[in-house]
Every structure is written in structure tokens, then in C-alpha cells.
Amino acid sequence: TIGQLLDLHQDKLILIAAMDEATYGLDLPANEAFQKRGSQLGSFPFRSSFLSIINQDTVLYEQAHEREKLTMSFQEGDSLAGFIWPVEVAIMSAGSFAGSDVSILIKSQELAPKARGLNIVVLDSLGETVEVAHFDTYISSVREVVNKWNSYNDN
Q: What is the pTM of this model?
């Protein structure tokens, strides 16, 4: 579940971007897992664009918009709420009414699964990718897509 992923990586940097819809299928435990970290995900409008950056189990940045695409980018060494970025990152979310797209670039490499719901990339303190995940949160809070990070490690 999403809550299990957040708990497992509470000491990591978690980048979350929504494609199409991210809240309809969120159950109470998933909402509580996000709220525990300071997120307002469950309160955003249906089919909104949504970005969240969680570090050390606390939301550093979060934004949603019903009709506009959202983007954030950071260069190595940039600061956000006291956090210093260890690598170059660009994150984009477009909800259903903003084009239904998603991107999470780490060092210019696309890692987002590019699927409906929450697309998630977890980084360690050095900026190395720990996990890539997707939850089709239109349907449920349970992982629907196999972790594709294993395929990156095999190359």
C-alpha cells in the first residue's frame, strides 16, 4: 500500500507526481499516512494536478491545481525548506483537465512510470534511486504496477 511505502522510506526523499487522477480511490489508511506527514492530498479536487516532495517523513513542498500543469525543478545544491538537493530533479504533474501527463526526471533520466494515479520516485541522501512505484489511486491505494526500478538496475 501507499502507507507501507511511505513508512518503509521515512528516512528518504520521496517525489510524488499525479497523472490524470490521484484521490478518488484513496482509502482512509492512505489518507492518514499522507496526513501524518503534513500532506493535504485527500482534500484536493478530483482529477487535479498534484506534486509532493517528502523528506525525512515530512512534506517539504506540496501543490495541487484543478486545471493547470504543475512543474518544479532543482539543480544539485539548490535549497528547499532547508533541504539541499543532492542531484538535479525536475518533476511535473498534469491532472485530467491539464493534459493528463507526468514526469519525474532524475539527472535528466525519466523515471516516472507514466501511469494514471500517483507516480513515485524514492531517493537516498546521495540522490541515488531506491525505488520507483506507481499506484492507480483512481482505483485503490494498492500498488498496481510492478516496481520497474529493478529493470534499471539490470542495465
A: 0.88
